[in-house]
Amino acid sequence: MVLLRPALALVALVLSLFLLFGAVPAIALMPEATILVTLKLDANVDAAQQVVTASGAHVIDRLRPLKVLRVAVPADTDVQQVCELLQARTDMVRAAEPEGEQVAQVAPNDPLYRAFQWNLRRIGMEQAWDLRPSAADVIVAVLDTGVDLTHPDLRPNLMLELGYDFLTDTPRPQDDESHGTAVAGIIGAVGNNRDGVTGISWRVKLLPIKALNAQGRGPDSAMVKAILYAADNGAQVINISSTGTRYSAALETAVEYAQDKGALVVAAAGNTGDGDNAVNYPAAFGGVLAVSAIDDHDQLAAFSQRQQYVALAAPGVDVASTAWSGAGRGMYASQSGTSIAAPHVSGAAALLWGLRPDMTAAQIFDTLRSSADHVNSTDLGFGAGILNVARAVSSARLGIPPRAADTVGGPLSVRLAGRASDTVRPAHGAQFARDARRERRDAQRRIRDHRQHRPAGVRGAIDVLRPRRPLRSGRAADGEDLVPG
Question: Does an H or E element contain 270, and which?
């Protein structure tokens, strides 16, 4: 009992002070909630203030010259109930809502971000990152020249245990060109780690698959195997930043296989827009999200394909990203091409899927198109417009259904064998895959009607090897797609 006496004395002292000064001051010190009441233009402000007082709240500020009142609600009062009471006065109140908070947009601390990564700011990444999206459980397959497996800005996001090289048939898809490393970095270089550059998805599962060699070439069979492997290993997004002008039924069948497993296939639109502007595959296959390239002035790159199969435009000129140091340009370098534009869309798709795992590939496709920045141009190369990740993420977060793509970018059609096909509007929802397959069957039938021979080509080469100058595919005598120096 002797030991308890000091404690009892302290309690008695606190009770005495409480009884002496009363409980009211203590309650008054509790934080009040604030709401903003926006009045109608013809509302009487004095009358509105009386209504606020009657609700149990009190006006603490008026945001002149607007008819907006800042109102304090006592801590023991239901804020939502006060808002509803005020909102019910439709004769004078336009809106009554809890006061929000403006915060600085999230900008990563990666040292090369501010000076070189204009591309990410253009597509609204700082606003998107502010919503804290995460793609940590989303698998994005990078089908390319491989990826630098030891790059410090990529390694934490690489699925090293599943990576594969289909040219050597070994489980080590080490990059020997640098192109695949650049693509991977745009999608998912680790962000906010005070190192190098940042990717669109700071945390994502990158599945590196090598299907192109050190010259940026690879046979159709390797790409087919790569697509099948990616789909079988759970890739939700499959990025193909390579192109070919020869149609391949085997390649199209592989794309269909991945789509039937629920994957979204994203592909480069092609880099001969100021040349022959040929149809490129797999970009032109039904249901593939084909991406064209813009520069830092929102101008479509001269080399970017102008085709009706283009779904979106994204930054693709002088874009900084990770690099394989063995190529002689250090660990970071700038590159150009629609192959560099495509991974912007793949990274955005990963964020959407991370935010809304319930969405289908068709819904991701539509959300990206419907949230794009409209372009005042009739150029087919813009597709539905310029990728806007901030708007897409906000839309997905709020559960807003995407608008139909044909109300944004117009009818979607495919040009085959040098002739325009009938215009086909993209389908949405559950019918998406069925309509895409029907379109592909119709396209194959037209191709058979117009071609007597369809040689099996070799996979097209990568879009770019050096900054500023996107490289173009040429046709060699043996039927290979080459990249001239």
Answer: none
